[in-house]
UniProtKB/TrEMBL annotation:
Similarity comment: Belongs to the universal stress protein A family.
Name of the protein this chain belongs to: Universal stress protein
Residues of the UspA domain: 14-154
Amino acid sequence: MEDLEHYQVSTMHYSRIMIAVDDDDFVSSRRAFDYACTVAKIYNIPLGVAMVLETGDLNIFQSLSPDVLSKRRQEISRDLNSYCDKARDFGVMEVQPFLSEGTPGHEIVEKVVPSFKPDLLVIGSETKPGHRKTIGTQAAYITRYAPCSVIVVRSDAKRQEMLQDLSK
């Protein structure tokens, strides 16, 4: 059995990274997206960009209306493609979009991650409490059940607030 005395630090290298962005919460997604793009660019590895259409946010009438659902799918798809374009513009060589529908935590863990097989999943999370089922509020579920390493990147909103308080 290896012990600390004989242990030597070795280089850790990721081969695939995935970022889960929340279309309804740019604040918590922005820093996580920046981090994921930075890591993917430095390691020159594929980046998966995942977005989930949160069907639970739609009321019964919206979910039964094909026009409303179709319009929301188009909006999400447009925003997902925009994130992918921004990653490419930043210098990430290989970017792959993933769009799913349902509860973000479940969809990411059960469908998106197994499809892309990343060895690192990056998610954003705000520091303020909330009851919505966004990527940020699903961070605990994702970190608990994801089959790969997960990094939670906090939004800088709370930090900015603290700095403003100090400057007064």
